[in-house]
Request: fold
Amino acid sequence: MRWFTILQSFWQSVFDRQRVEADLDDELQDHLEREIASNMAAGMSPKEARFTAQQMIGSISIYKEECRDQRGIGLIEAIARNLRFAIRMLRRSPLFTAAAVLTLALAIGANSALFSITNQVLLRALPVKDPNRLVVFNWHGDFIGGSSRGLYQSFAYPAYRDLRDGNPGVFTGIAAQYQETADVGTKGTTDRAVAELVSGNYFQVLGVEPAIGRLLTPNDDQVKGAEPYVVLSYEFWRRRFDGNPSILNRVINVNSHPMTVVGVSQQGYAGFYRDSPSDLFLPMMMKTAVTPTWDDLEGRNSIWLHIFGRLAPGVTAKEAAVAMSIPYRHALEQDLSATGRPRDFSLRYLKDTLSFSDGAKGNATFENTFAKPLYVLLAMVGVLLLIACANIANLLIARAAARRREIAIRLSLGATRASLVGMILTESLCIAVCAGVLAAVFSIWLVRALAGFLPFDNMRAGIHTTPDFTVLAFTTAVTLGTALVFGLLPALQGTRPSVGLTLKNESSSISASAGQIRARQALVCVQVALSLVLLFAAGLFARSLHTLLMADTGMNVSHVVQFSIDPSLHKYTPELSRRLFVELQQKLRRIPGIVSVSAASYPILANDNWQNTVHVESYHPQSEDMNPGFDQLLPEFFTTMGAPLIAGRDFAQTDTTGAHQVAIVNETFVKRFVPHGSPLGLHFGYGEGGPMPFEIIGVVRDFKSGGNLRQEPKPFVFLPMLQNEAPGETTYYVRATPRAATQSVRQVLRSLDPTLPLYEFKTLEMQIDQTQFVDRLFAWLSSAFGILATLLAAIGLYGTTSYAVTRRTQEIGIRIALGAEQSNVFRMIMSEVLVLTGLGIVVGAPLVYWAAKIASNQVFGIRTDDPIMIAAAVLVIVTVSALAGFVPARRATRVDPILALRYE
Amino acid sequence: MTASELVPCAENNHLPLTIYKPDNDTVDSREELFLGKPTDLLQGTLDLLILKTVSLEPMNGWAIAKRIVQISNNVLQVQQGSLYPALHRLEHRGWIKAEWRDSENNRRAKYYSLTAAGHKRLETELDNWRRLSGAIGLVIEAI
Reply:
């Protein structure tokens, strides 16, 4: 009841002001009348009575003010009044308002778009119960399956079992998972989907609930190959089955294996990798259905699955690492007894250590790739926002100067400085809020555009364009922050109480203090400095991209089209697969316009790597990396890719299983492992010792075979695909002129097998673009930021200079009247512009140095402290500054001394 | 930031209540007992006096002021500059409510009366006052 009264009174005060005012008038008038009546009753004359009463009461208007304050509406009223005034002021100068709002909207929008992506990619925790208690298992040391050392997140399945069963209670559960693409078939159509093999306790450990049906349990993960149950992710269920609950207990084909859908996981949960959402969850025991070409479930020297655990209450990750070292050592001993490695290796191997990293965000491999680029871009776009703020502050100072007399009058009439600062800040706030609203819309569009840059479809699917609460909060905070950043300085500047001075200065309509000029000059300096940094970075990344794309791949990448098939997912036996591969190659080659066709097991330049430890005939390694890259090829691969053989022969159709095992190596392999004599006829084998079945039959010139363009040349081994015991996904490369000749590829494949899906049909150039997308993203965004920043700085410089020229019209007039040459005047103005620019460059220099350090491992093939790059950035800034200063300087030379002096 | 910092308004630097020496009842020879800034004690006291006064019957502002002066034997003078803000504050807080009546000279007059919340508030204020004055009394007597 009481609160209702308060609200009512508040409401009336704000929205029914006239009535409240009238009431107050009446009430005070009534008091006055009564006082007069009382005075008259005491014997005064009417005139005297009124006079005394009025004297007693004093100024009614002051009471009214206080009464209003008592209703707690003073602040609201002040804000409302400031708001009305601000809107009026802004509407009076639509050009300024539009420019300021647009500049800010672009800058804030870019910030919130990048933040949105960063948040989704790096910051957000998995949507599971208490994600902060999850840890990811890592190990450090020697690898039982090879000669490499390092930090790994992959484990063998037996090691997982050892750890899970040896858990001394420091974890409430330890789960494992592995992700792989799979073909999902329902009702005659087959699509690619992402499958996650999970241990039976996976959902329990995560604390994920089913949306419908049930989730997998340890009971579903008992017998190898006999647990045909699948759980769908919520998104996949909605996308593929329209969210129809009748999917429960239906059978779908996963790589042609019929599996029963037992449930759908809770909304929002899409697997343990946030960059790559999972569509299906299958029991670990169904591994062969997902990876038909390799089993390795019991292999102790094959590391492939990821392990995570939920820490028991009160246990820290450190304590858990200590407690888990005992079961881990047990697992290492088991590994050794199963593989029989030499003693000195065993001693080293037992020193391998287990450690845990934060698992709240799921698997963190993604973070390593994207964290730094994203943070660098976020920093750049933040700098851009600062520049935009400086620009608007600059414009506001100019406006404040124009309003100096108005403000002086307000001050002299008794307004406090705080109230005036509030008034001007309200104006800034209006601009910022308009910009913020626009920015929110703009950022949605921008996130979509940026997500389009991401090369992986499922990753793109994982990025939502609609801003969530965190992003909106971020945008709001940035908006309000910018209002303060760009509004406070002009507000404080503009309300400096030097009333007398301003009011006296009647002669000139433009009167600005030296302080204002200095403030604007400082702002321009900051802008120049920040622009220099962004320009420098833009130059670096653009040049890096250029170097990268111009880098010699060792191949002829134009006119090559690629696509992938995986017959192993469709119940092809290895024998049938190999036959299909050859038939497809031959049929494609017969199409007119197709020059040559070949295929590889691992697509080239697609960030895909396969490596093996080898030992080479008559080469004695001295604790070095003995892990060359591997790939398997159909004949004619080198011809198709334009990578010439420099010795020996190519693979032939006769290099099949059962035949003598052959290999082609690259030049670097020869340089490293065959220092003397001819490599042809030499043998090598897998592992650190034992049989050497592979004979080197050819040497190919180095070309960028695996990984990406950044990769340094490394030893590489190519094996004939037709000798592959378990061929899986295979990528075809078709060289054709014209490229249109490849249009019939699908048709040819359909004629061989109408059900086999074909994926990733694209040109090799598109593939390279996708692989290097981080570099492209960097180059494009940083160039855009750099250009925008320079443009803003130029506008700032132009504004400041032309303002200074206007202010100094009289001075310039006198100079000209006294005989100064036009060129002198021009030089005077220009030198001021250039001094300002120079100051900005000096301020920016340490920032550039700092930026160069940060960027050093983001660029390719160039030095970040390259003086030419720095000089180029400086040159651009100076040129743009000169252009910005040119127009006002020219105007200064045209000052008519008579006109200028008449104002005095 | 308070309202008065944002809105240009007159400084509030007079006492809400002025207490006069009891032996001087002429207007001209007033001598203020307390100077300086109003304290919470005095502010609260004015609220208490108003609440107590209007608890008897609905009353207009002028009558409230007069009543306080009369009953305190001219010791407590309520300044109009303090009375109306106080009335509005109390009304805004929901402790008193106002209604408009026609006054004797055919004008609208605002009459204040105590609300239920105001009754409770009055009880609390009275308790506080009694405790405070009792405590002050004890201290003064003891020393």
